[in-house]
Amino acid sequence: MIAFENVTYDYPGVTALRDVTLSLDHATTTALIGPSGCGKSTLIKIAVGLLIPSRGQVRIGEQALESAHLAALRHRIGYVIQSGGLFPHLTARENVTLCARHLRRPAPWIAERFQALAELVRLPGDLLDRYPGQLSGGQRQRVSVMRALMLDPDVLLLDEPLGALDPMVRHELQQDLRALFDRLRKTVVLVTHDLAEAAFFSDSIVLMREGRIVQRGTHADLQRAPADAFVRAFLAAQQPLPPLHD
Ligand code: ADP
Ligand code: MG
């Protein structure tokens, strides 16, 4: 469904991705994980078309992601970022429906789709006419997910969507998002730096380091056969709770 082929990306003075080849099948969830600065957000921004690879290419379905038809392809991709990225001066409803209104979708279609999405992300109706500043962090992320799904994209990309939430809100949203991914059967890529979260959500985990993919597999694959010393160290760094002393 989405394929990166030998993708390299250079920021001025920094090579963020080095020859990344990765293919993600339809209706699978992939967790992208790795230390801060390893290139996760850059890879996602390339998939959304916000950045163009310095070398290599990306395909969505059969189409290469090139500037000529970027706008049309972008509508096939939903994107959620950690801070939500909602426009502060628009209500939740206005944020979610902005793009559909811009594309002149019929008002009844928009209203129906909006209602269905509000139910899908379990947001009570009385919150939908609030501004982002009047919502909690978890509620804002639910609105961001609605917005990303409004045009019914094939691909959903989430860049640390739960990173800014407190543990209980995060846990609740994890459960709801996983149920939603199972139900929608889209190609989902979720960035996290939490291995437990990666294992909870995904069919496969892609572990990155310094712009390269180090290993791809299930959590069990990584545990049983770590590709190198870095993978072992990364797994070891995911601390369990200390034992109780009583
Ligand atoms: P991650 O999301 O895994 O933390 P990023 O993709 O954000 O990593 O960044 C990868 C590398 O590219 C890092 O070294 C980062 O400092 C660098 N980088 C990211 N954005 C920019 C930018 N706009 N200009 C220059 N360097 C950047
Ligand atoms: Mg990032």
TrEMBL record:
Recorded GO MF terms: ATP binding; ATP hydrolysis activity
GO biological process annotation, one example: quaternary ammonium group transport
ABC transporter domain location: 2-235
Record keywords, A-Z: ATP-binding, Nucleotide-binding, Transport
Membrane-spanning residues: none
Pfam families listed in its UniProt record: ABC_tran
Species per Swiss-Prot/TrEMBL record: Panacagrimonas perspica
Protein name: Osmoprotectant transport system ATP-binding protein
The keyword ATP-binding belongs to this UniProt entry's keyword annotation: yes
